Known about the structure:
The chain is built from three helices and nine strands; from the N terminus they run H-E-E-E-E-E-H-E-E-H-E-E. The chain is α+β, with helices and mostly antiparallel strands. The protein is globular.
Amino acid sequence: MKFKVLALITMTFSAFSSLSHSAETVGTIDEIILCELGGDKWVKTLQFKVNNQWFGIYADYFKTGNSYDNNIATSLIYMAYSQESVIKIKASGNWDNAFTVCGVAKGSIIYRIDGDYIRLSR
């Protein structure tokens, strides 16, 4: 019985842990999607595909009294795409509704997790 409980706890933790959704790759950006999620608060996500893996960031966000623009990461991604630069990326955030609404079913996002990064190289 103890084994079953321990196994259940372990499976539950790994299914919802940000570490279980971590993705890392090196390559050029093949595709970019700027996706809108509207309503009283609205969000724009920037999604990009590297080596057949999808990654994303929150590019723009507005809620009454609160606005957020991620200009640095957005610029870095567009620059890397336009110049066909090699990027190295690690993203551990969970893909949520703001990202799936434009047709990409799964991926990883860079959002509030220590150690996630986008690195450019020549």
